[in-house]
Write a structure and sequence with these properties.
With 491 residues, the chain is of the alpha/beta class. It has 17 helices and 22 strands. The longest helix has 14 residues, at 2-15.
Length: 491
């Protein structure tokens, strides 16, 4: 049966317009992934099952769940499925999928059209239709605007989030019976970042994480739909007590290189982390940064701040200049930085090279000095997620102030520059392989937020200064830089 479902999925995915799928945030689950997800539920014998499939599509996930029931690994006396699917064009295939199991399992089901968010909130507010024992879902992936109807509805039940996928998971949590299990495939983006903090808080307050599976390739979980992002499968127990978390990995949905480890909850969410970042360690070993006795300090300890570049170009459009001119000061974009340092100005650059200094722009400018800057976005082709550079005042000797555009993170001391060796030390530390490995354990995308950098632990101010003094003599030598950091940790 699952092979027939897979053929249907491939046919529908191929024949569905990409714009339509994008509009709905619709990505169909491959059967191999569906089987893996269904296999995560703990084995049980007897009793009744109430299964929620939110964003059911053609029924791949429900079908995989029912196949596991038929194999007797989930042996329920009764199975009731509530399958929500907004796209009416899929209802025929969804009903066909479920109907094929009527004679093979003690099954009843309903296919529910309409908006899952509206329906779920209605059930939560009026206390009807909750109490699901199991949930399996591949929710839609689409941003929710801050002033949308969905956002306002979600706030009625205490949910604050920015994407449909996290809204679906949050609502599912509220609909679950105590001890109920949720298995969902979702983007990894919820693991860090300030916008998902309310969702992480809710997830950790209402459930225990039992299993996380990481697809290490960004383009294979939904390759037939052209999805480019790092996905995870997560299993949650509603109201469960925190404990060990099973972490598994594979490159893609073939699971041919499957690897498994068990970690304490404290490796997943670090004690004292107010942001509740969710780390996904891929080995039992602590990474170099976690092992280093030299990295125990916060930026507050160091007297350093990191901020997103304050110049938002479209808000100051009338003050921007393509090239330096009288009354204008340097404006730095990520494009001005390369491995050799700063290239400014750049003739013919699509972005402006300067900004007028006047009463309207003054508050957005920093005094010229030494700064460590980190690009907020890196390309997937780059080896490191964090790419740090040093701004030197002599590069802009004729300017009293500088503009840092919004796609840069800037390390500073109360909006003033850093001591030279400290700026170089910060950049050197952030460019180490150890930092990259640690960063990847909680960040699955190419964006580096100021919040991410604030929450990291750093060497002492003195050690950073010492590192910077030596790092100035190294020219793009990654191994030499890593060796410098390792020796720092041995002191």
């Amino acid at each position: 049966m699952l092979s027939a479902i897979e053929q249907t999925r491939l046919r529908i995915s191929k024949n569905t317009d990409a714009k339509w799928k994008s509009r709905l945030g619709q990505f169909f689950t491959p059967v191999s992934t569906a089987q893996f997800m269904a296999g995560l539920f703990p084995e049980i014998s007897g009793g009744a099952c109430r299964l929620l499939d939110a964003g059911a599509g053609i029924g791949s996930l429900s079908g995989a769940f029912l196949e596991k029931c038929i194999s007797s690994k989930l042996a329920f006396g009764k199975i009731d499925i509530s399958a929500f699917e907004f796209d009416e064009r899929l209802h025929g295939e969804l009903k066909n999928t479920l109907a094929t199991y009527l004679k093979r399992t003690p099954l009843s089901y309903e296919v529910i059209c309409g908006d899952f968010i509206e329906e779920a909130i209605n059930r939560i507010q009026f206390g009807n239709g909750g109490g699901f024992t199991h949930a399996i879902l591949n929710p839609p992936y689409k941003k929710i605007s801050s002033d949308s109807r969905h956002r306002l509805l979600l706030r009625q039940v205490g949910i604050e989030t920015v994407n449909l996928y996290s809204a679906f998971v949050a609502l599912t949590l509220l609909l679950m019976a105590p001890g109920g299990y949720i298995v969902a495939i979702i983007p990894r983006s919820f693991c860090n970042g300030p916008y998902y903090r309310p969702f992480r808080n809710m997830l950790l307050d209402l459930s225990a994480i039992r299993h996380i599976h990481l697809f290490e390739s960004r383009n294979t979980a939904f390759k037939d739909d052209g999805v480019l992002q790092e996905n995870v499968i997560i299993m949650l127990e509603r109201g469960g007590k925190r404990g060990d978390v099973h972490v598994t990995t594979s490159v893609d949905d073939r699971f041919s290189d499957f690897a498994a480890h068990v970690h304490t909850f404290e490796r997943i969410v670090l004690p004292g982390d107010r942001e509740n970042f969710i780390h996904i360690p891929t080995t039992l070993d602590l990474n170099t940064l976690q092992l280093s006795a030299a990295t125990r300090h916060t930026l507050d300890d160091l007297g350093i701040k990191v901020s997103t570049g304050p110049v938002v170009d479209f808000r100051l459009k009338e003050h921007l200049r393509s090239m330096p001119e009288s009354g204008a000061v340097p404006l730095l974009y990520p494009g001005h930085f390369d491995k050799q340092g700063i290239v400014w100005p750049i003739e013919g650059m699509k972005k402006p090279n300067a900004i007028q200094r006047n009463p309207e722009t003054e508050k957005w400018l920093y005094p010229n000095g030494y700064y460590c800057v980190v690009r907020r976005f890196s390309s997937k082709e780059e080896k490191h997620r964090i790419i740090a550079s040093v701004v030197r005042p002599d590069t802009f000797a004729g300017s009293e102030v500088l503009g840092f555009e919004n796609h840069l993170n800037v390390f500073h001391e109360n909006k003033y520059g850093l001591p030279e060796n400290l700026a170089y030390g910060l950049a050197a530390f952030l460019n180490t392989t150890a930092v990259d490995e640690n960063f990847r354990s909680f960040n699955g995308h190419t964006q580096v937020n100021a919040t991410d950098l604030k929450l990291m632990k750093y060497p002492s101010r003195g050690n950073l200064m010492a590192l910077g003094e030596k790092a100035k003599l190294i020219s793009n030598n990654q191994q030499a830089l890593d060796d410098l950091f390792l020796r720092l940790g041995q002191k």
